[in-house]
């Protein structure tokens, strides 16, 4: 999400909480960040339950596997050539090396990370 705030200010904002709950908002029975954080376990379990009903689900890190499963399941031939990458490698490297910032990111994205981890193991 593009913004002009300093990263520390952004990570304390409602916009950051909204971004940190993308998987939960899309796949759980909750659609806003406040409800997701107030019902963390239910948000995670309802998202995982929903994702398990998909014919094919996967992650960018395993894009080729997902593509193979998709092609096999739907008896088609799609090919995905590329995936998005960070536009500014220096800024992202600086963020990854800042423990305080990374701890805050891990804290606010713990729900989506739980959903993601479950998806990786489906």
Can you describe this structure in just a few lines?
The protein has helices spanning 7-11, 14-20, 22-27, 33-38, 40-52, 63-74, 89-96, 99-108, 110-120.
Query: How would you sum up the major sheet?
Result: none
| Count of separate DSSP helical elements | 9
Low-confidence stretches: none
The share of residues in helices is 55-70%
Secondary structure tally: strands: 0
Roughly what fraction of the amino acids lie in strands? under 5%
Radius of gyration: 16 Å
Give your account of this protein's structure.
There is one protein chain. This protein is mainly α and 122 residues long. It is 64% helix and 0% strand. The protein is built from nine helices and no strands. It starts with 6 loop residues before the first helix and ends with a helix. 15% of the residues are buried. The mean pLDDT is 90.
Helix-strand layout with pairing:
Elements: H1 7-11, H2 14-20, H3 22-27, H4 33-38, H5 40-52, H6 63-74, H7 89-96, H8 99-108, H9 110-120
Helix pairs in contact: 5-9
């Amino acid at each position: 999400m593009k913004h002009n705030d300093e990263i520390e200010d952004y990570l304390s904002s409602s916009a950051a909480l909204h971004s940190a709950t993308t998987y939960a908002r899309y796949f759980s029975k909750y659609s806003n960040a406040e409800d997701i954080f107030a019902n963390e376990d239910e948000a995670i379990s309802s998202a995982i339950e929903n994702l398990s009903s998909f014919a094919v689900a996967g992650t960018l890190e395993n894009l080729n596997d997902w593509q193979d499963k998709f092609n096999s399941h739907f008896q088609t031939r799609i090919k995905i050539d590329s995936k998005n990458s960070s536009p500014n490698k220096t800024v992202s490297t600086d963020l990854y090396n800042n423990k305080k910032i990374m701890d805050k990111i891990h804290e606010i994205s713990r729900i989506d990370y739980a959903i993601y981890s479950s998806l990786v193991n489906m």
